[in-house]
UniProtKB/TrEMBL annotation:
Alphabetized Pfam families for the sequence: Hpre_diP_synt_I (PF07456)
Protein name: Heptaprenyl diphosphate synthase component I
Listed Gene3D superfamilies: 1.10.1760.20
Organismal lineage: Bacteria, Pseudomonadati, Pseudomonadota, Gammaproteobacteria, Chromatiales
Domain PH stretches: 1-23
UniProt organism field: Thioalkalivibrio sulfidiphilus (strain HL-EbGR7)
Length: 170
């Protein structure tokens, strides 16, 4: 029995593959602070949101986390839990922002929002479940600053990639 696929299925698969490739490449980068990565796969999620809507962005983001964790060997580990929590927090913030502000937020603004939500979601899980120590709170300003800087960088990339014309329907 063959499964029929739609144009949207192919689009999601292509965008997810791109985000997964970026995710795997970022996993290989050294980090001065554990868990802090540039988050360039977020560019793909934000572009998917802007071009094709929240549903496509959710699929791309969740497939990236799942397949990316399988490829780098972190599936069902604390790293996977943090990545999934960050993605869910980011998606929730993006969904809320687009519901409230509609198309008035730029790619740059959405990337910064997503990066900050991602980091905050990860931090809350790390603090609650993994390292419930008050000293961890001292890292929060550093982590949020890194998220802001990386959000600005990914937002700049997304802004350069976002076309001025509306896309064709998936």
């Amino acid at each position: 029995m063959l499964l029929s696929t739609t144009r949207e299925d192919h689009l999601i698969a292509w965008l997810a593959a791109l985000a997964i490739a970026i995710h795997v490449l970022e996993a290989a980068l050294p980090s001065p602070i554990p868990g802090v990565k540039p988050g360039l796969a977020n560019v793909i999620t934000v572009l998917a949101l802007l071009l094709y809507g929240w549903r496509v962005a959710v699929w791309v983001s969740l497939l990236r986390v799942l397949a990316g964790s399988l490829l780098v060997g972190s599936f069902l580990s604390p790293t996977f839990l943090l990545s999934l929590t960050g993605a869910l927090a980011s998606l929730a913030a993006l969904g809320l922002a687009t519901a409230v502000a509609g198309r008035h937020l730029s790619a740059l603004g959405l990337c910064v929002l997503a990066a900050l939500a991602h980091m905050l979601g990860q931090f809350l899980v790390a603090y609650t479940l993994i390292i419930p120590h008050p000293a961890l709170l001292k890292l929060l300003p550093v982590l949020l600053t890194a998220a802001l800087l990386f959000g600005l960088a990914s937002g700049t990339i997304a802004r350069m990639m976002y076309p001025q014309r509306p896309p064709a329907a998936p």
